[in-house]
Amino acid sequence: MSPKRIDDGSLTEETGEPRFSPRAPFHTALRSFPLRTRRPGEPLVVEHLVRRFGFTLVAGAAGLRRPILVSELHRPGLALAGHFAYHPPERVQVLGKTEVSFVADLPASLRFERFRRLLSPETPCVVVAHGEAAPPELLSAAEEAAVPVLLSDVPTTHLMGKLTSFLEAELAPRTTIHGVLVEVYGIGILLTGESGIGKSETALELVKRGHRLVADDAVEIHKTSDNGLVGEAPDVIANLIEIRGLGVLDVMALFGAGAVKESQSIALVIHLEPWNEDRSYDRLGLDETTTRLLDVEVPMVVLPVRPGRNLAVLIEVAAMQFRLKQMGYHSAREFAERLGQVLDEKA
Question: Which parts of the sequence belong to the HPr kinase/phosphorylase C-terminal domain (predicted)?
Fold first, then answer.
């Protein structure tokens, strides 16, 4: 069998078939596509990934609207070796230098067959990282299956870290609730309560005292991978606060960039409610209650509201008390222990 010459002059020893060079410039980028920005509530699709990371699209343009449903990524080394048991087709497939150099040693017909099996109807896209060139058989299989093939110059491990962080944030469970989110002494506090109870006025007072506003009236909350909660303001009301009688105020314009924050983890919920004479409120602090947001239990404090109570100061104290509890000090329990000791001595 006579040898066949290709770009780098190499060929496979077993079959004499040409061995493609992973660095050979055998493909050209497709023409630019008008990629759309993702709108709130819109499913995450491949074109959003292309826009966010600036990938180069080289094949499978018909599949740019394929949905991305999971945040996990997959490097299909075993699948390219022929082992497809437990292969997760629903994940974004990432090829690095290892995978590309491995398939370069395979016969062209076998490469095409492996890539055809790899690109299932559930596969969102394939990302070839580290500046590697996409194998021509991958491009052919991708066009056939309408699965986008994307190129990136970023090293594989670094790219996977960035992709995972982005997908976890975008695909996290989300909800929007009525409330105000502020950062007080570094602690994210979500103020809830009926309309008109004074949440926005309290937040404005906290901002004047040096704390930061995250969101007023509507708080978008998403769940993180470690079961935490992060809140932020919808774009349309970012940095704005509504005060009855004054209207909508731009907090950043009034108090400076240090008075607002883009997002904040939620550590404590403070519920404001009208003072009810018939209700018995906790006076010692021994009762610890929680509320559930996106199936995550969050500590909650109920503050009754009536004229004469300085809510901003009370919320500052609640934040400091919360931090002390995190450090292991619980003043109410210490008081109970002291009281118990005094009663034991008198008994």
Answer: 170-338
